[in-house]
Design goal:
The complex is a heterodimer. Chain A is of the alpha+beta class. In chain A, about 25% of the residues lie in helices and about 15% in strands. In chain A, strands 1-2-4-3 form a 4-stranded antiparallel sheet. The longest helix of chain A is centred in the C-terminal third of the chain and has 25 residues. Chain B has 9 helices and 13 strands. In chain B, strand 7 and strand 8 form a beta hairpin. In chain B, helix 3 crosses helix 9, helix 4 crosses helix 5 and helix 5 packs across helix 6. Chain B is globular, with a radius of gyration of 20 Å. Chain B starts with a strand and ends in a 15-residue tail after the last helix. The chains are: A alpha+beta, B alpha/beta. Chains A and B meet through helix 1 and helix 2 of A and helix 1 and helix 2 of B. Chain A: It is found in: Cytoplasm; Nucleus. Chain A: It comes from Capra hircus. Chain A: Belongs to the CTAG/PCC1 family.
C-alpha cells in the first residue's frame, strides 16, 4: 500500500498478499528476497476481497504534481477536478473478476453517491477489472464518515453478485 | 402476464414480494425489532436489512416458484423513507436488474400502500387514510393524480404512538403499536385527564385508551372532511396503523353515518411489504414507465 505525503489509509490493503505494485510495503518478517513481494494474487475466484488498496494523501499546493491516485493506474479517463490546497484525498481500488463486474458495481453504487455532495466529493471509475473510488474533502473526518457506510454497501453488492452469479452470455462479452 | 419483483426497506421492515397480474405469489418479510425503550436508527436498520435481503430474495423466488427468467421487471422503493436503509435495498435492486438484464422501476412507498390496498380490497375510487410510523395523510385521486387533502403538520400518528410506547418501555415486538392496542383494549375507564393512581400503584391502560381515542378521532374527522369535499362513497385505510381495530371501528361508524363503505387490509398488507412495491411497479410497468439506472437514486423525502 502506498502512502504519499501524509497518513496512509488504514484498512484492508495491508495483508500478506502484496502485489508487485507495492514494493514499498514488504512485510517485515525478514523473509528471503522477493518471497513476499511477488506472491501470486489469491484465488481468482474471489472478487473484491482483501486486496482493496487505499491511498490517502494531502493535496500538495498548486504548482507541484499532486498525487494522482486514480490517474496513476494506467489508462483511466481522468476524473473531474484536482484536489485543492488543504483538501484530503482518499482513493480505494477494489479488484473484481472482470471489467463487467466492476462496472456493474459502479452502476449500482453511483446513483446514491451524490447525496452528500456539499461536504465531500465522491468519484467512480473503472480501470481494467478494478473499481476505483476517490473521496475528496476538506477534512478527513468527513471522508471517514462516508467510507464506512460505503464499504458496507460495496460488500453487499459483492455478495449479491457472488450469490446470483454472472449469467454465461454476459460474461462472454 | 408480467411478473414483477418488488423490494421494500424504507423503515424497519424489509420485504421482497412477487406479483403477477393481480396475484401475490410471494411476500416474505423481516422486522428489525429494538429493545423496549428504544427506537430504530438508520445505520443499525440498514445493517439488519443488508444481512437478510439476499436470503429474502431467494425465499421470494422459491415461494413463487419462479426463476430470474420469469421475472419481467425489478421494482424497489425509491422513497420516501430513511436514507441508509433505502440505499441498502436500492443497490441490491440495481445489481439484480443488471445481473438479470431486466428493467428497473423506482416506486413511491406511499403509492405502493395505496395500490396494494386497492388490489386487495377491490375499492374503486376511495378516499384514502394513510397512517403509519412515517406518514399520516388523507389522499384522494383526482384528475389523473393522487392528491393530498390533509396531513400531519408535524409527526405521523404512528410515530406518536411509537414514541409513547418508548416512554412507557412497552415492547417493540412485534410492533409498539400492536402492544399499545392490546393493552388499550383492557382499559375500562376513559378519563379526560389520564392521571391514574391507586394507592401505591399506578395504572397505564387508561392513558393508552385516551391516546387512541383522541388521535383516532382526529384522523376520522379529517378523513370525513375530505370525503365530504370529494363526494366520496368509499374510504380505504392503508399503512401500519391501519391494522388497529379500534381505528377501523371508529372509521366504520363515520362511514355508516355517511352511507359510505370502509375498506381495510390485514397485517400482511397494512404493514410495509415487498409485494406492495411489486404491485405498484406492475401498474407502472404496464403503463410503460422505466427508471434508468442513472436516475435511480433514492429520495428521502
Amino acid at each position: 500500500m502506498q502512502a504519499s505525503g501524509g497518513g496512509a489509509g488504514g484498512a484492508e490493503g495491508r495483508d500478506d498478499q502484496q502485489s508487485s505494485r507495492t514494493p514499498a510495503c514488504q512485510s517485515g518478517s525478514g523473509s528471503a528476497e522477493g518471497e513476499d513481494v511477488h506472491r501470486a494474487p489469491e484465488g481468482r475466484g474471489v472478487s473484491g476481497r482483501g486486496r482493496a488498496v487505499m491511498e490517502a494523501a494531502v493535496a500538495r499546493p498548486r504548482g507541484e504534481r499532486a498525487p494522482d491516485g486514480l490517474g496513476s493506474a494506467g489508462d483511466v479517463a481522468p476524473l473531474a477536478v484536482r484536489p485543492r490546497r488543504g483538501e484530503v484525498v482518499l482513493t480505494l481500488r477494489v479488484p473484481f473478476q472482470s471489467a463487467l463486474e466492476a462496472d456493474m458495481a459502479r452502476r449500482s453504487l453511483l446513483p446514491d453517491a451524490q447525496r452528500h455532495q456539499g461536504l465531500i466529493r465522491k468519484e467512480f471509475a473503472v480501470n481494467g477489472s478494478d473499481l476505483l473510488v476517490r473521496w475528496t474533502a476538506e477534512d478527513l473526518a468527513f471522508i471517514r464518515l462516508s467510507l464506512n457506510p460505503f464499504l458496507d454497501q460495496l460488500s453487499l453488492v459483492i455478495r449479491n453478485i457472488r450469490s446470483l452469479g454472472i449469467p454465461p452470455r454476459q460474461s462472454l462479452s | 402476464m408480467p411478473a414483477v419483483l418488488g423490494f421494500e426497506g424504507s423503515a424497519n421492515k424489509i420485504g421482497v414480494g412477487v406479483v403477477r397480474d393481480g396475484k401475490v405469489l410471494a411476500n416474505p418479510r423481516r422486522t428489525y425489532v429494538t429493545p423496549p425503550g428504544t427506537g430504530f436508527l438508520p445505520g443499525d436498520t440498514a445493517r439488519h436489512h443488508r444481512a437478510v435481503i439476499l436470503d429474502l430474495l431467494q425465499e421470494a423466488l422459491t415461494e413463487a416458484g419462479l426463476t430470474s427468467e420469469d421475472i419481467d421487471c425489478i421494482a424497489y422503493t425509491k422513497g420516501p423513507g430513511m436514507g441508509a436503509p433505502l440505499v441498502s435495498v436500492a443497490v441490491v435492486a440495481r445489481t439484480v436488474a443488471q445481473l438479470w438484464n431486466k428493467p428497473l422501476l423506482g416506486v413511491n412507498h406511499c403509492i405502493g400502500h395505496i395500490e396494494m390496498g386497492r388490489l386487495i380490497t377491490g375499492a374503486t375510487n376511495p378516499t384514502v387514510l394513510y397512517v403509519s410510523g412515517g406518514n399520516t395523510q388523507v389522499i384522494a385521486y383526482s384528475e389523473h393524480r393522487y392528491r393530498i387533502f390533509g396531513e400531519t403538520i408535524d409527526i405521523a400518528v404512528g410515530n406518536c404512538l411509537d414514541r409513547f410506547a418508548r416512554v412507557l418501555k412497552i415492547s417493540n415486538d412485534p410492533s409498539p403499536g400492536y402492544n399499545i392496542e392490546q393493552m388499550a383494549k383492557r382499559g375500562k375507564k376513559l378519563v379526560e385527564l389520564p392521571y391514574t393512581v391507586k394507592g401505591m400503584d399506578v395504572s397505564f391502560s387508561g392513558i393508552l385508551s385516551f391516546i387512541e381515542e383522541t388521535v383516532f378521532a382526529m384522523l376520522v374527522e379529517i378523513t370525513e372532511r375530505a370525503m365530504a369535499h370529494c363526494g366520496s362513497q368509499e374510504a380505504l385505510i392503508v399503512g401500519g396503523v391501519g391494522c388497529n381495530v379500534r381505528l377501523q371501528e371508529m372509521m366504520e361508524t363515520m362511514c355508516q353515518e355517511r352511507g359510505a363503505r370502509l375498506y381495510a387490509t390485514d397485517e400482511r398488507f397494512c404493514i410495509d411489504n415487498g409485494a406492495m412495491i411489486a404491485q405498484a411497479g406492475w401498474e407502472m410497468f404496464q403503463a410503460g414507465h422505466r427508471t434508468p439506472l442513472s436516475e435511480s437514486g433514492i429520495t428521502q423525502r
